[in-house]
Amino acid sequence: MHDQNVDPAPPRRRGLVVLLGVAGAALAVAVGLSIGLAMPVLTAPSDDSSDVGFARDMSTHHAQAVEMSMLGVRQAGLEEVRRMALDMGLTQQAQIGTMRAWLKQWNVPPTGTGPRMAWMRDGGMSHDADMADQPAEDAPMPGMATEAEMARLGTLSGAQFDALFCDLMIRHHAGGIEMVDAVLRTDPEDEVRELAEAIKVGQQSEINALTQLKSRLSEQ
């Protein structure tokens, strides 16, 4: 008489089934991870996309604001200007780091071979008319200070510095918002949209604060 409770599968067979099950589960996890890791590469913006152009050009745009801000920390007359300058510089330097990380993740170089701001021209910006007569490599960036303006800012201190700093940074931020609006019209990647919207909110708030400060300075 046979014992009905005896497992019909020999121990070695059961072990093989378990081993195959574990191996199959591990393979599924590995495949899932591979797909997950590959997706950012497979869906990354192309080198000539507005996402990549924005990341490159806004990094350059931000770099000048950081330079102006560091001058403000050292040369501003009012403590309020120094505090604002420090906050702007730290914020925009952090954003530069984020955008450079994107470019690395997207496997594109930090600088392109095409003309600057081409992604904005393709978007039909009003800025295009001013850029039409410019050599591609010299295409202006919205709101940027000229070399002469930066040199002059570097020679000033106190109230004179504060006044010019407000003027240049208000214009600079307005140009940055123009670039943000341009990329937002192109249905960018989620991370680009989120940062662009944050830049717009932050810089519009700073424009308001700088405008009020400039008004007070003119009354002194």
State the CATH architecture of the largest domain.
Answer: Up-down Bundle
Residues in helix, % = over 70%
The oligomerization state is single chain
- The CATH homologous superfamily of the largest domain is called Ferritin, core subunit, four-helix bundle
Structural class: mainly alpha
Unreliable stretches covering 5 or more consecutive residues: 1-9, 13-41, 123-137
The total count of helices amounts to 8
Share of β-strand residues: under 5%
Total number of β-strand segments? 0
The CATH class of the largest domain is identified as Mainly Alpha
Distance between the termini: 110 Å
- Residue-averaged pLDDT, rounded? 81
Shape: elongated
Whole-angstrom Rg: 27 Å
| CATH topology name of the largest domain | Ferritin
Q: Give the count of structural domains.
A: 2
Q: What's the main sheet like? A: none
Précis, in short:
This protein is 73% helix and 0% strand. With 220 residues, it is an all-alpha fold. The longest helix is centred in the N-terminal third of the chain and has 32 residues, at 11-42.
Walk me through what this model shows:
By secondary structure, the chain is mainly α. The chain folds into 2 domains: about 10-45; about 45-220, Ferritin, CATH 1.20.1260.10. Helices cover about 75% and strands about 0% of the residues. The protein contains 8 helices and no strands. Helix 2 runs antiparallel to helix 7, helix 6 (about 145-155) packs antiparallel against helix 7 (about 160-185) and helix 7 runs antiparallel to helix 8. The longest helix is centred in the first third of the chain and has 32 residues, at about 10-40. It is elongated, with a radius of gyration of 27 Å. The relative contact order is 0.13. The model is unreliable at about 1-10, about 15-40 and about 125-135 (pLDDT under 50).
